[in-house]
Amino acid sequence: MNTTFWGLLIPFLGTTLGSACVFFMKKEMNDTVQRALLGFAAGVMVAASVWSLLIPAMEMSDSLGRLAFFPALAGFALGVAFLFFLDRITPHLHAMAQNPEGPKSSVNKISRTVMLVFAVTLHNIPEGMAVGVVFASLLNGGVEISQAGALALSLGIAIQNFPEGAIISMPLRTEGNGKLRSFVYGTLSGAVEPLAAVITILLTSLVLPFLPYLLAFASGAMIYVVVEELLPEATRDEKTDVCTIGFAVGFALMMVLDVALG
């Protein structure tokens, strides 16, 4: 139980520490650094989606024989569809974007600050679900996921949450908010992760046979965030090299963590 507690809390601590950068950095984050951090976060999320979520989902479905891929495929597709739906109904503003997304009727009534927080909160939901479903499997005796492997996922998400916290708190500061307020908003954007994890654990205990689908669901949602948000923001013009390097470093780090600890 102690391991589960820390496993759920570690990603949130990563966001909190990243948000605290607003107290020590200039008003605006260097563009190159921000691109590198976005690429790094994308690399971590892609690696976590494959090694910590999709592969265990298929291993859990070995009894289906040649159809062992089906739960992973179905869950992945549902995860992408779920984030696509949330993206369309939630007014939000990406950190490096000028124009907000979501229902126009709501966009015109909500401040840029709130929409910035909405954007990060939106893609923190699948990360929380990913941690929750992995620990749910662990608590229910899932042999495909070890305690070290579950902690590796939490640590990997926490590592990518650190730059994510900075990436949200710094633009909030640029928008005219005070340092303390920017830090609080940045931290609160990560609070949805442990909440989503706990809810997922409670639900998973009731629908244990669907664990492979839930693992793949979280993977699909995370991949959607990478492709729809992180990479486009980091490669919005010809300056793509630093994002590519950041992605490679993040992917390699998460791969090493998962294999070495798992």
What's the layout of helices and strands?
Elements: H1 2-19, H2 31-60, H3 70-89, H4 104-107, H5 112-139, H6 147-174, H7 179-204, H8 211-234, H9 241-261
Helix pairs in contact: 1-5, 1-6, 1-7, 2-3, 2-6, 2-8, 2-9, 3-8, 5-6, 5-7, 5-8, 6-7, 6-9
Brief overview, please?
This protein is mostly helical. It has helices at residues 2-19, 31-60, 70-89, 104-107, 112-139, 147-174, 179-204, 211-234, 241-261.
Description:
Helices cover 76% and strands 0% of the residues. The protein has helices at 2-19, 31-60, 70-89, 104-107, 112-139, 147-174, 179-204, 211-234, 241-261. It has 9 helices and no strands. By secondary structure, it is an all-alpha fold. The protein starts with a helix and ends with a helix.
What about the largest sheet? none
Mean pLDDT: 81
Number of helices: 9
Shape estimate: globular
Helical residues, percent? over 70%
pLDDT below 50 for ≥5 consecutive residues: which ranges? none
Structural class: mainly alpha
Please give the radius of gyration in angstroms.
Answer: 18 Å
- The count of DSSP E runs of length 2 or more, i.e. the number of strands, is 0
Strand content: under 5%
Oligomer: single chain
Instruction: Give the SSE string.
Output: HHHHHHHHH
Distance separating the two termini: 18 Å
